[in-house]
Batch of 3 targets.
Target 1
Amino acid sequence: MVKLEQVRTAALFLTGIFPLLFVPAAAGVMDLWADLQAMLVPVLLALIPITILVMTVSGCVTQRLAERKEKKQ
C-alpha cells in the first residue's frame, strides 16, 4: 500500500499544473474544429452512454469491494 506521505509532493505538483496539461489538447481541438463539427453529434451519442456505463460499473465494483472489506472486519 502506498502511503500518503510518499505521493503528497508529486500529487500537489501535478494538481498545480493540471490546467496546463489540457492546453495541447484544447489547441488541437481548436485547430481541427471544422473537421470535428461534422462528427460532433455521433461522438456525443457515443460518449454519453459510455460515460454513464463506466460510472455505473465503477460504482458497483467499488461498492462490492467495500462490502467485502467490511465483511472481513
Target 2
Amino acid sequence: MPPYHSQSSTKYNENFILSWFIFEIILIIFHLPI
C-alpha cells in the first residue's frame, strides 16, 4: 500500500477496507459447498 500524505488518505483507506470486506464475502461464498 503506497504511503499517502494527503487528506484523501482516509477516503482511500475506507475504500480499501470496503473492497477487502467484499472480497472476503466472495471468498466465503465460493468456499461454501454447493
Target 3
Amino acid sequence: MTGRSTATADLSTTVACLSTIAAGSMLVGRTAEDCSVLRAKVEKLVEAGLGAQFLSRDELRVEEPALELGEEGGAAFMPDDCQLDARRAVTFLEKTNRSFAAEGRYAEFYHEPVTSFIRSESTGGIEAVQTSNRTLSVKKAVVIAAGCWSGSVVDNLIRDAGIKIDVPVKPRKGHLLILENFKPFNLNHGLMEAAYVSHESAKLSSTSTDSKTGFDATIASISMTATTDLSGKLVFGSSREIVGFDTKIDESIVERIWTRASEFFPVLKKSSLRDMTDRREVRVGLRPYMPGGKPLIAPRRGARTEIVRTTTMVRDRTRVNTGPWYNDATRTRTNGERRVYAEQQREDLRVGLATSKLR
C-alpha cells in the first residue's frame, strides 16, 4: 500500500544507497548496418544533452580489450550510465516506503492475497478490497500490478461483476548466467549487442508471430549482454521465450548464451561450461510480455477506481526477474532518466497485487 510520494526515487541523492555501478554502458555492433544505427542513436542522445559518443573498433579495444567485433565493429558509449543492483534497490525502496507508515500513508500486507472487490451497490465502483484477513477501503483507485499474472488476476477479481476485460499479457521466460572467480578477462562496462534492442535476433515463424513486430516470441531468442555485479561476478545474458509459466533451467539455452557471448569474447572459447559447474549460477525468471512490446498502464473503461498495470514481479530469492541487465529494476539509465519507478515488489512473493490509496 503506497502513498503518492513513494512512486519515484531521485537517484541524484540516493545512488550510494541503491548500490549502483557507475561504469557506463555500451551498445555494440558488428556490422556496418549496426554501426549506422548506433551512430544515429548517439546523435539523438547528444542532441538531447546527454553524454554519448560513438567508438570505433580501435577505440573499443582500449575500453574493452577482450571484446572482438571484427573490422566493421563499433559501439555507442554512454559513459554516465549506471547499473542498479535489483535486489538491493528493492530493499532500499521498501525501506523508503516504510518511512511513510507513521503518517498512515503506507502499509504492507504481504502473503495476504486479495480475494475480491467490494463494489458500491449504487455505482458499481470499487469501494474496498477484501483480502484473506481484512478489508481495505479505497479512497481513489485500485492499481492491479501483478506482472505476467495480471490477466488471470483481473479475470478472477472482476468475474463476479459480469465485466470482461482483455489483458493479453504473457509471461516471457529468460535466463541469466552468472560466473564467479572467472579470471580470463575483466569487463569494464555494461555491454549489450545492438540486436537486443532491435529484436533482430528473434526468429520468424509463419504460424505464431506477433502481428505488430513480426517476431515469434515462442522461439528462444538469444542476444549478448554482459556486465559485472557488485561482488565482481560476470553476468551473461540473455534469452527471451514465451513458454507459459515454466521457470525450469534449460541447459540448452544456457549453452546458447555461452556460445553467443563467445562470439564477442573469443577468450571464452578456451573454457567449457562443464568445467565451471561449481562456479556458476543460472537465474531464471518471468517478465510480462505484451503484443507489440508496449506496456499496459491504463484505467479500465467505465471504472474510475480501477487501474490495470503490468509490471515485472520477482518470484522468490533464487529466481530473480530476468532483466536482464537493461530492463526494469536492473535497467541502465542515462542522465536524463535518473528516476527509478518504484515497483511494489518483494523478492519472496510469488505474485504481487498492489492496492494504492492515492492522495
